[in-house]
Amino acid sequence: MTNFDIVPNRRNPNSLNKWMWYPKDVLPMWVADMDFPAPKPILNTLHKAVDQGVLGYELPSKALKETVAARMDRLYGWKVKPEAVVAVTGIVSGFSVAARIACTPKKGVLLQTPVYNEFHEVKTNLGIPQLDAPFIKHVDGNILSYEIDWVIFEKQVKKAGMFLLCNPHNPLGIIFSRKDLLRMAEICIKNNVLIVSDEIHSELLLDGNKFSPLAKLSSEIAKHTITLIAPSKTFNVPGLFCGFAIIPEKDLRARYEKEVGNLRLHVSSMGLFAAQTAFSGQCEGWLADLRRYLTANRDFLVEYVTEYMPEVRLTIPEATYLGWLDFSQTKIKGSPYEFFLKNAKVALSEGRLFGREGEGHVRLNFGTSRKLLTLGLDRMRKALRSL
Ligand SMILES: Cc1ncc(COP(=O)(O)O)c(C=O)c1O
After folding, report:
1. Domains in the chain, CATH or no CATH each
2. Three-state SS for 27?
3. Which of 142, 209, 272, 286 has the greatest count of CB atoms below 10 A from its CB?
4. Distance between CA atoms of 318 and 313, rounded to whole angstroms?
5. Which of 34, 115, 170, 265 for mutating ligand 1's site (highest number of atoms within 8 Å of CB)?
6. Quick one: which of 142, 225, 239, 141 has its CA closest to 189?
């Protein structure tokens, strides 16, 4: 069993990570990386590369593409040709490249909000319209759930060149049902909209939940879809910046690869080495332990908030290590992010960054030890009680 109760110290004056961003007395529960070391096989691979001594250029090998394709088959029974796999310098670069080939000043990017803050940067970086299709929010007791508003989705898709899907969803933790995925895909195809499915969180499944890639639903859907995956979130190696775009359709892939080439988006050697080990099946025991630990942390978070901060609403994420908390019914005036930073010395992610609907909300990263999660929640509870 991996011991996730042990959290290495990342406070290093020469580094600028989430532990160094705020003053020392602030507990960081924001950026989406975990406080745990990566699995041993990945670390061994990286040690070996360093010990060999030459840190030269590396290209994505045939073996690596085969490993990625084999993982899709093993996990989901999804048959992907190795040549359909394109290495990218992370998933944000991956969807930014897709937007460059699919969007224009007249055909924008469709998002389901609230959603991962970097999705909102695509419009700014490319000078294209952003089309929001906000979810319908439901409240049951203090538990939040979200549902697709099909009327607005169908309306917005007409003005889009690309639909950027987040599945599992950051920050809501939803794994979309097969029925919803089929319906979204059908609407996009009917309207000639490219589907880009960001599945970076697809292996961070809680409760033994299952996941299946959107593109696996049918060969027609696969033809219109770019699937983005990475070992980065799952195995906690996001700083190595290596991800993959899976593009079964040849012409679409050629256009995508051309743009990647034009931008000179070369993946670092360490990222490629780590991905090979991560996806080869050597870290599955570690991953099973991680899922159990994160599921227990998720349960602890939900129970803690329900018992000690009952006026706070929150989701029960099905995947990811991200909680979504709604403080709009509490006495906090203004941004809860600012309130907790000042009064609890806890740094959360500002809900407003995820879209207009995020006002009064924060995202909380529970990819940490139970001890630090408890410390953060205790501080938040105390600050709330002082109002
Ligand atoms: C949905 C989603 N996509 C992409 C990323 C970041 O990907 P990368 O660091 O590989 O660009 C994140 C990180 O939080 C994420 O949540």
Report:
1. 18-38+284-385 (3.90.1150.10), 47-278 (3.40.640.10)
2. strand
3. 286
4. 16
5. 170
6. 225
